[in-house]
Amino acid sequence: MLLLAVALLAGCAAPGGPPHLRVEVVGTLPHDTSAFTEGYELADGVLYESTGLQGSSTLRAEDPRTGRVLHSVDLPKDYFGEGIAVVGDKIWQLTWQQNVAMVRDRATLQLISTASFQDEGWGLCYDGNRLVMSDGTALLTFRDPKTFAVLGHVQVDYDGQLNELECADGSVWANVYPTKTIIRVDPASGAVQGVADLSALGPADDTTPDDVLNGISVAPDPGEYLVTGKRWPLVYRVRFTHDGS
């Protein structure tokens, strides 16, 4: 594994705005360039990745330290895979415009049941009590982790389309589509607690505009996160810190 120690951003908060976060890259690992990453979550030493595109969507279990695929299942050809969230021994997986959320067995990745929902499915995470879902707007929807029923909403104070999500440290981390920005959100108020610029990461070739940053998960090592993008060749191990910390 290539080890780096690069501070990508050392910003200060704009007057009246959320603080900028320093992004430190501490390592990389390989990422499958065929994986159109839509959901990304580490749980109990296994990294789960949901990939999109109709006709080739998958759910995968991977070794987080090598990127090796341990197990993979294909979605129905008419489904476009989106965000995922691990809840106990099950995994919720969204579809984009098919209005179907799938419950899968975590050990086998096989389908157990489905639930229907309105609007589009983008990102999903689990905060220990509720599922948190994005729909391509700045709105986050809270859902029951057993029934997928709507429990509430919060409007995020940010002008952007929230995509893949990670629930960690009492916050919701959100990729902002189609940028290389990740924001940290207070789920109680929708206030943005930090903005991270990851523009130095990912392929330098921008000829494929769909291959955007879209993956964030806690890493095996405390205080670190794994970030990647759609069809990116690398996953980056990073730390987010406030300037001066």
Descriptive overview:
- This protein has 245 residues and is mainly beta.
- The protein contains no helices and 21 strands.
- The strands form four sheets. Strands 1, 2, 15, 16, 17, 18, 19, 20 and 21 form a nine-stranded mixed sheet that branches. Strands 3-4-5-6 form a four-stranded antiparallel sheet, with no helix packed on it. Strands 7-8-9-10 form a four-stranded antiparallel sheet, with no helix packed on it.
- The relative contact order is 0.19.
- The N terminus is likely disordered.
Mean pLDDT: 92
Order of helices and strands: EEEEEEEEEEEEEEEEEEEEE
Q: What is the tally of helical segments? A: 0
Anisotropy-based shape: globular
Q: Describe the biggest sheet?
A: 9 strands, mixed
Helicity level: under 10%
Distance between the termini: 26 Å
Percent of residues in β-strands: over 45%
**How many β-strands, per DSSP?**
21
What class, by secondary structure content? mainly beta
| Radius of gyration from the alpha-carbon trace, in angstroms | 17 Å
Low-confidence stretches: 1-14
